[in-house]
Amino acid sequence: MEKLKIFFEERAFGVCSRLGEKLNFPIDSIRLFFIYASFVTMGSPVILYVSMAMTMKIRKFFRKKNNPVLFD
After folding, report:
1. What parts of the sequence cross the membrane (predicted)?
2. The dihedral of CA 33, 35, 37, 43: what is its sign?
3. C-alpha separations of 47 from 10, 43, 52 in Å
4. Model confidence over 15-26: pLDDT tens digits?
5. Quick one: pLDDT at residue 47?
6. What is the sign of the dihedral through the CA atoms of 5, 46, 32 and 30?
7. What is the 3-state secondary structure (H, E, C) of the chain?
8. What sign results for the dihedral spanned by CA atoms 33, 34, 36, 37?
9. If phi over 0 gives left and psi between -120 and 50 gives alpha, with beta otherwise, what is residue 70?
């Protein structure tokens, strides 16, 4: 079971861990919320999760682009 958890954590977008760090909230609770909410609402939190992941990727792209490295 631990290998399966590590497999998904390495390949996930990191949205739950990022939210947990920002809100100072347990990451496992956030993941469970997304899972349970997806079952109850027929998958609409998955759309929210993917949009948050895309936002994180776009922000990271622009940070790299706007951070010039200066050589002396």
Report:
1. 33-55
2. positive
3. 21, 7, 9
4. 887 888 888 888
5. 82
6. positive
7. CHHHHHHHHHHCCCHHHHHHHHHCCCHHHHHHHHHHHHHHCCCHHHHHHHHHHHHHHHHHHHHHHCCCCCCC
8. positive
9. beta
How far is CA 1 from each of CA 7, 8, 17, 32, 45, rounded to the nearest angstrom? Answer: 10, 11, 19, 16, 25
Nearest to 48 by CA among 1, 24, 13: 13
| Mean pLDDT value across residues 4-23 | 76
Q: CA angle 39-45-51, nearest 5°?
A: 150
Q: How far apart are CA 11 and CA 7, in angstroms?
A: 7
Q: Is 67 a residue whose pLDDT tops 70?
A: no
